[in-house]
């Protein structure tokens, strides 16, 4: 994908959502990963443990705008636009490119890229026993959590920790799937401020947290040429048959060996918090925490609370391990 006026680096933070992250040293690049021109942001010392953040359906890396700088105090943070989302290119595969296995394969390419950069940055620094630099966590919201969980099940040992925020793939409610399809389609087929704001306010309990900068960023995205066609493709997981074959099975959940924290807002429109608690019980040793009075996007709606819950868990899970300690964090 070549840069167009709508994808040029000059417009990467056109509305100021990423100003704090940029001030903290964040850089945006567009490497070709897994055959996809991928818009990616990195911030934090490359010598720190790696945390990769994955957004949800129809979204973009700005979903994590408020937590990148706070997380970067402790981790080397990477967020990216999923294939066909944000300002990344379309999926490499024409058939099944918007289903979860394809996203998992692309995530592997992202992890390979980040690992290569980390190795290059650490040359000459040396590395001692128990060094945490090579440890990796995934933080996924909604579709991002779905991808992260399926990745951990399919690639055992590749990541050390997961924070799964209202992950998709754990239930299939026709009403929720219909609402997401309707709101997303309206926002992209007739892109205007009101439709985009409706789509974004659905994600939060407090509509005032949907800022003008977020609306403007999403509106610019939805006004890109071909945006409606891409949205139609990526909404395939809201089709009951497609969703069914991509769900996280009991066997997959039980096979996750990474330390896992499941978060779910008590005001999440995609389902009750008990959905998250039930899913956490399917993962050996996983912790669950309900986020009171928050919706589907706690990392944006209340970044302070999200950071206070997630960072201590990740710091423990990604701490240097001894030969007898695999870094697993357990709890209820």
UniProtKB/TrEMBL annotation:
<dbReference type="GO" id="GO:0016787">
    <property type="term" value="F:hydrolase activity"/>
</dbReference>
<protein>
    <submittedName>
        <fullName>2-hydroxy-6-oxonona-2,4-dienedioate hydrolase</fullName>
    </submittedName>
</protein>
<dbReference type="InterPro" id="IPR029058">
    <property type="entry name" value="AB_hydrolase_fold"/>
</dbReference>
<keyword id="KW-0378">Hydrolase</keyword>
<dbReference type="Pfam" id="PF12697">
    <property type="entry name" value="Abhydrolase_6"/>
</dbReference>
<dbReference type="InterPro" id="IPR000073">
    <property type="entry name" value="AB_hydrolase_1"/>
</dbReference>
<feature type="domain" description="AB hydrolase-1">
    <location>
        <begin position="51"/>
        <end position="308"/>
    </location>
</feature>
